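Example complex used in Figure S2.
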Amino acid sequence: MPGTAVSSHAPKIRWHIIVFLAPAVLVYTAVMILPLFDTLRLALYDEVEGERVFVGLENFRTLFGDANWSRQFWNALINNFWFFLIHMAVQNPIGIALAAILSNPRLRFSSFYRSAIFIPTILSFVIVGFAWKLILSPIWGIAPGMLDAIGLKSLFAPWLGREETALTTLALISVWQFVGIPMMLIYAALLSIPDEILEAGECDGVTGLSAFWKIKLPLILPSIGIISILTFVANFNAFDLIYAAQGALAGPDFSTDILGTFLYRTFFGFQLQLGDPHMGSAIASAMFAVILIGVCLYLFGIQTRIRRYQL
Amino acid sequence: MTKRIILGALLGSTLLAGAAAAQEVTLTIESWRNDDLSIWQDQIIPAFEAAHPEIKLNFTPSAPAEYNAVLNSKLDAGSAGDLITCRPFDASLALFEDGKLADLSDLDGMSNFSDVAKSGWSTDDGSATYCVPMASVIHGFIYNKDAFEELGLEEPETVEEFFAVLDAFKEDGGYIPMAMGTNDQWEAATMGYQNIGPNYWKGEEGRQALLSGEASLTDPEWVAPYEQLARWGDYLGDGFEAQTYPDSQNLFTLGRAAIYPAGSWEVSGFNNLVDFEMGAFPPPVPNEGDECYISDHTDIGIGMNAATEHPEAAKTFLDWVASPEFATLYANALPGFFPLSDTPVEIEDPLAQEFASWRQECNSTIRSTYQILSRGTPNLENETWNASAQVIKGAETPADAGARLQEGLASWYEPKP
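Predicted assembly (728 residues):
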């Protein structure tokens, strides 16, 4: 047999593996890995009288030790956690519920709903931020008028302009934009559940809602885990929506400041504040650490414990 | 075959262009004023090229918000234009100190400018100037003349009269008394605090005292503007907390608001939008008969890339920018941007004329936070945006705001008496 003839030779370099991997490895290294390590390196330097000098962990000491910096950092981090919590508490349950409804074979126009709900995801942040700012505008917006039409005008407030509500409002706008992603992923997971299992359940009297809780939900848990971690990474890298809606100062009174806007302000500067790439890199490194810790906690703490079923 | 012909044509055209370029110099201008593109192309550049046919100009603006970042990377990469539009104060000072901008102190045209005019683009000790001052902007209030006539009101001169006017509009209910929002924060500081403040801190006198450490932001003259701002909140439109800068502009130009706290840069834009008559009054003084002070802020200058290949041509252009001819051209092409040169300039636009006339009646100063004081962390300018917005919303008392700003400033600034 030709197969045995090959294996009797000395091990050959399998060029095809290298050739096929090379483009991805090269591109990924050039645009992701090198910049990442360069950012980490830059965080250890500072500019003193026009010269770049190595200062060790000095930038981090400033970031966490100097009240002016640490106050902003913790404020941004806490806001970021709140932003994430809203997504976990609102976006993902709604996404799962929508997927469950869409996967019901008796639902008509389901592909229309599916596309309609998914469309905001492909819109630019700038469009979403601008559109919602207009919708919620107390002057030209349609939100006050709509509330007025049902007699609830008193409930309207300039939500984006108030410290107590601005961040939650922005988080909900982001939820509106991205709810299509968990929906699509869960929808795909639900479709992959074989009908035989559900039919077997029906024979045992498990139907309707209880079929969802007892059969479908355990089977899609791994997908929910993946969605959670994707949400986590996306939220802690978020920047665009806040910048588009509230600007780099993340008003009112920094109540919508998240790590992304804080990094932008520091790295590139803002108005009279000159950019400081070294402190900016320190913040970027801290963001990287937060995300890394979160992902590790998930991978080792949760991922390994989720029970998987062979379908 | 056709391909070869096209190739030949292309080659020929580049050769021709190359030959033409050898005779004349093309200078590229970096700028953030993309709004002015047509004015440069239709008026300024032709006027210059007519006088200096051997020099061609190429105006290449980028978006204002990105300008500083774009310019810095271009300068680092060596691909920046020959002439560089200068932001005032630290952004340009940093470029000069890095050797990116050439020293223009010996330029002949520089003698046309006063020290205050040059302050935005000079080293702290004033020994070197690196950009030619082009224009300043003046703060004040633009109002709807028709609305004032409807209610039989006159331009207020004192703070008391100012609030009486606002009360009259509030009572009438037909107009939003004043169009401003706090969503974008900078209007509250720039068109609020820096607009009315100089009357309290007595312009340059107070600003210099703050720089030298004799005054503190907790002093009454620095807190008083916040006390006035705290009263503004009642006269702004519903939901002003979420009102943005374009919202305010639209409210005023649509005739829904009576008074607009303004910068003179609005003049040309508003002229094209309103269908009522506009007037302007300077920030009201605290007591009748007080001397008045206005913020006449150096806003835009132009310098030379130190690495330019054509320093002589660039200097010829800069000398022309420093000339009265350019000042007249610029002031009338862009009403609301006022030339800084010492020779008086004839301005045709009535509203811009009104703004410019205050230079004779009142003392000029620049925005208090711009020179030196916004160098450290926390950044005083950004903090002032925040504090002004907070005070107008009533979320912070004027005294607290002053104390917070002073604490932040004192944490890094050591006054040089």
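The radius of gyration of chain A is 25 Å. The longest helix of chain A spans residues 67-102.
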